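Hi R.,

Quick one: here's the Serine hydrolase domain-containing protein sequence you asked about.
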Amino acid sequence: MKFLCLAGTGTNPAALQQQLAPTVKDLERDGDHSFHYLAGSVELAESEGLKASYGPAPHFRFLESLWPGATDQQISEAAAGAPGGLTYEDKLRYLERRLPPKTSALLQDVLLSLHRKFEEEGPFDCILGHSEGAVIAATFVIDRLQKSVEANKMVTPRCAVFFNGRSPHTADGKGWVLADESGPLITIPTCHILAYNDPTADGAVALYRLCDDESATVVDHGRGHAIPKDAKSCKLIIRAIRDLMDRTGD
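And here's the predicted structure, written out as tokens:
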């Protein structure tokens, strides 16, 4: 199986390779899997915080920010005013009413580059993403599946692994794809690896709700937002990905 792995905010391909090392080492024992790593092109200013969390520079992300057009401070202030008890989807709608219009021309470039990568270096059987990488992966999968309806020879990923994801962007970069509005759109088998003690866990659940519940599984490793590398968590992750591969027919 050929994996395309998308890094989260603040990381780079080498860092993602280190994060996934125990899982990849186990899967590579099969002798017929390959892993290809990709990060965004927006380089973040070097800081001690980024270095401590993700290792040496460079540090990248795919899009300008979580909410293109708004600063991190604006996003934090708007989110702090959200009433309690809202679903994740309602929280995003709340932010949409209080922040500048969300749009990202860069998202079009990111999606185009992923489509091109699939055509020129693929096909990739599985797309895997962590955090922002999971958001971009889900956005791409939905766009690829929809385009494949129009072009029946277009090859799509056969499955996906989402680590600590969130609701994907709409392909035009102007909003979010929300399960309570669209229903399930990701029809390939998926595995959602998350931690319910992660402050962003409701976003990961929202992404799960966009997937076919008959072919989607959830694994709670209990280790927050990072990709854990302890033996117990890695065992859970490896078992979940191998189960996904079995369900995909590999």
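The longest strand covers residues 2-6.

Cheers,
M.
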